[in-house]
């Protein structure tokens, strides 16, 4: 009898544990849950903690509460000025209405597929309305804000809130890059040539100004030297005149010496008559005392 009670107790204990395991469940802070009974929604659980359900008859579907991210494959788009772009975008989103989410897309894979379609459509529309220059990194923000806003509005039907849409990478297609780079190189060479031309022109202008200033400086220096030389000659003439007035004989002697210095150079031959006044002092210097 005791063994029978023991076995019965064990069976009841195991059964109780099984019932409790099918009745009680936990919801984490990062989760929300739907209680489904025979394919029908019974209630939504948003608060974290320990909760219960009817065993076997009800099932739990847990749905992520945190912000999720969808990284799409690169796709080709055409700009307003008919340039092709290869764009890879990232969408950040979260589930705000678990029941609507479950009814429309069922799970995260279905949600990502729907979101990718929406973003592709809105991104294609936005890029087609803007020139290539407006879509480079420095001017991309307004376009992406417009894409995120329209995508968020359409995603609400799936119980999804779109946080933002960002361009992860934007490139030119491989076959277009070569021609674009060639145009960029040609443009840089044109700019460099213009700068060199402007530099040569400026250099010539500076040299002309320098030569002009040099000529003016030399002319002024020559003028000043001539003026000073004239003043010196005038001063010498005054001194000579003063000396002539005070001692004509000495003045004549000095002037004769200057004349000797000028024409009696090395290896010079001069023909003069014996009574030449120029030889006066030479003759007198040879007379015996």
Summarize the structure.
The chain has 289 residues and is of the alpha+beta class.
Structural summary, described in words:
- This protein has 289 residues and is α+β, with helices and mostly antiparallel strands.
- Among the domains are: 13-64, no CATH class; 68-171, 2-Layer Sandwich (Tetrahydropterin Synthase, Chain A); 248-281, no CATH class.
- The chain has seven helices and nine strands, in the order αββββββββαααβααα.
- It has helices at 2-23, 98-104, 108-128, 141-155, 174-246, 248-263, 280-285, and strands at 24-27, 31-37, 40-45, 49-52, 58-64, 68-71, 75-78, 84-95, 160-171.
- The strands form three sheets. Strands 6, 7, 8 and 9 form a four-stranded antiparallel sheet that branches.
- Helix 5 crosses helix 6 (248-263).
- The chain is rod-shaped, with a radius of gyration of 55 Å.
- The protein starts with a helix and ends with a helix.
- The model has no long low-confidence stretch (mean pLDDT 81).
């Amino acid at each position: 009898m005791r063994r029978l009670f023991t076995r019965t107790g064990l069976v009841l204990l195991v059964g109780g544990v099984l019932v409790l395991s099918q009745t009680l469940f936990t919801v984490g802070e990062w989760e929300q849950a739907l209680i489904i009974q025979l394919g029908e929604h019974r209630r939504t659980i948003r608060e974290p903690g320990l909760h219960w359900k009817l065993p076997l008859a009800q099932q739990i579907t847990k749905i992520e509460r945190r912000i999720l991210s969808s990284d799409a494959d690169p796709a080709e788009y055409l700009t307003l000025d008919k340039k092709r772009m290869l764009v890879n975008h990232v969408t950040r989103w979260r589930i705000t209405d678990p029941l609507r989410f479950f009814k429309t897309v069922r799970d995260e894979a279905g949600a990502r597929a729907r979101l990718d379609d929406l973003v592709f459509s809105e991104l294609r529309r936005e890029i087609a309305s803007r020139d290539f220059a407006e879509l480079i990194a420095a001017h991309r923000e307004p376009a992406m804000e417009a894409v995120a806003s329209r995508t968020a509005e359409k995603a609400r039907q799936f119980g999804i809130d779109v946080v933002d849409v960002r361009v992860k990478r934007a490139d030119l297609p491989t076959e277009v890059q070569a021609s674009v780079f060639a145009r960029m190189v040609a443009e840089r060479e044109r700019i460099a040539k213009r700068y060199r031309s402007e530099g040569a022109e400026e250099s010539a202008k500076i040299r002309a100004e320098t030569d002009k200033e040099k000529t003016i400086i030399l002319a002024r220096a020559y003028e000043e030297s001539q003026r000073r030389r004239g003043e010196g000659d005038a001063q010498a003439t005054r001194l000579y005149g003063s000396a002539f007035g005070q001692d004509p004989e000495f003045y004549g002697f000095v002037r004769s010496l200057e004349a000797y210095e000028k024409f009696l150079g090395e290896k010079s031959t001069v023909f003069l008559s014996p009574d030449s006044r120029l030889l006066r002092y030479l003759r007198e210097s040879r007379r015996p005392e």
